[in-house]
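Shipment paperwork, digital attachment
Item: protein structure file
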Amino acid sequence: MPSKQTITLLRMLQNATSPQEVVDFGFQLMGNPIFYQNITGSISYYTKKCEIKHIRWQEDIVKGALSMNSLMPKGGFTIADHAKKYKESEKPIRISSFQAGNEFYQNIMIPIFIQDETMGILVLSDFERSFCDEDDELFHLVADIFTAKLTQVYRLHPHGRHVIEGIFFRLLDGMTVDTDLLTERIQHIGWHPKRYFHVLVIQSDSQKPEPMLDLFILTQHSCNQLFFYQNRIIYLYTSDELSVSWEDENVGILKWLQKQQLQGAISNSFTDLLQLKRYYLQAIKALEVSTVLKLTTPIIKFDTLLIYMLIDHWGKSFDPEELCCDQIRILQDYDKRTGANLLNTLRVYLECHQDIALTANHLFLHKNTVRYRISRCCELLNTKLEKSTELFNLYLSLHTLEYLKIKQE
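Attachment content:
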C-alpha cells in the first residue's frame, strides 16, 4: 500500500504542467535525480529544483557533456536496441553507466515513445541513494506521466524534435555553452539565423494545442525558432537589419495575440546568441512592468519602457522619489492646496510632444483649459519648457511619481 506522501507526490506529478515539472516532482518521489536525453543527444530536461552536487552529474548533465554512448553498455548497444528490448519486456532497463574512479553508478532507463517513434530516454540515476526493488515500478509511473506531458509539447509542434533542443534551455538557464557545441546544434536542427536576434516572450497560462499550432504555422521559418521554456512561449526572431519594423513583418503574430487575448514582450536586438538569457530577461522585465502599468497592447517593446526600468533599478538601492527634481515638489504642493491637477496635465503634455490639442484629447478637456494649466506650470516653475535637460528632469520626475502611485494601488 503506497504511503500518503507517495500518493500526494503522484498527484503532484499528474498535475504537472510540463515535462520539467515531472522530472522535478519525480526527484521528490524517487529520491534520485532524473534526466531526459532526446534522440539528438541533448539533455532536454533534468532535475533542477534540488542541487545534485556530485561531479559527474554537474559535468555530464548540468553542463551537457554526456554523450549518448555513455548510456549504453559495452557490446554495441544503441538506443534503438534498448527501445526494442523495452518493447519486448515492458520492463525498465538497469545498467551501469557513470564511472568515477573505480565506482560505477546505476541507471534505470525507460525509452520514451510518441506514436511508436523513439523520442529519447528517461533516466533515473542513483546519485542520492541506492536503488530498491520498488523503484522500477514507481519509475514506470513517472515515465508514463512524463510521456503524456512530452506528447502535449510535441502536439504543439509538428517538428517538436527540432524545437525541444536542450541547447536553448542551457542558454536560458545561464549555463556556459561551448561555441563549437552551439554551432553544431544550430547546424543539426537546420537553423539559418540572420544577423540580429530578438526574443519575444509570451506569457500563457493555458497552452492549448490548437491555438499553439496556429502560432507555429505563423512563425515557421528556417531563420526563426519557436519553443517553450518555464511555461512561456519563446519566439527567437532574426533579421538582417537593425532598424527592422517588427510589427510589419509579424502582422500574423499580432493578430494571433489579439485573438487569444495574450500579450508578448520583445527584447532589444543582439548579435551573440550566447547572450540569449540576458535578452530573455529583458522581455520578462518588460512583461512585468506592462502588468504594473496595465498596458493592453499585444506587443510590448523593452526599449519603450526604459524609464520604468531605470526607476525600478534605482529603487533597489535608494528611495525612488529621489529621482524627482525640486521643481516637482512645487507642483505637488500646489495641487494639494488647490486640486488643480497640474502634475498629470504636465505629464500628458510632455508625452504628447507639447501639443495642446493632442493633450486636450487625451485628457478630455477643452484646449483653453490645457493651455491655462500649462501656462500656470510655467509660471510656478519659472520656465518656458524649452531646455532639453529641464524637460528630461521633469519627464523622469513625473513618470516616477505616476509609476509609484500605480504600484501602490
